[in-house]
Amino acid sequence: MTQTREKFATQVNSEILKALRALAQEEGRQLQALVDEALADLIAKHKNARPRPHVMAAYLASHEKYGPLYKKLAE
Q1: What is the DSSP secondary structure assignment for residue 34, as one 8-state letter?
Q2: Among 14, 36, 42, 52, which residue's CB has the most CB atoms within a 10 Å radius?
Q3: Is the pLDDT confidence value at 20 over 80?
Q4: Are 18 and 25 spatial neighbours (Cβ–Cβ below 8 Å)?
C-alpha cells in the first residue's frame, strides 16, 4: 500500500541535522525515512504517555477513599 506523502518546511538545530545526516549515511537510509521514524516514535510516545481511562478512574477512586492516608504516608 502506497502512503500519501506531503511536503512541509521547518527549521532544525544544525547539530541535530548533522547527526541525522551522518546516521542516514551510516545506515544507508534516506534522511526522509529517519525523519518519518522519529516523528512516528514521538507520536507513539505521547499517545502512550496518557493513562488509560480505567486506570485514571481507579486512581481517582482510590485517592477519594484513601486520600488522608496517602497524605499521612507522604509526611
Answers
A1: H
A2: 36
A3: yes
A4: no
31, 21 Cβ separation under 8 angstroms: yes
| Angle between helical axes of 31-49 and 14-27 (0-180°, round to 10) | 110
Render pLDDT for 29-71 as a digit per residue (tens, 0 to 9). Answer: 999 999 999 999 999 988 888 788 898 899 899 989 998 998 8
Which grid cell is 52?
A: 488509560
Grid coordinates standing for 53?
481511562
pLDDT score, position 16:
96
- Report the predicted TM-score, pTM, of the whole model to 2 decimal places: 0.60
Q: Is the pLDDT of residue 1 over 70?
A: no
Q: Which amino acid is at 32?
A: Q
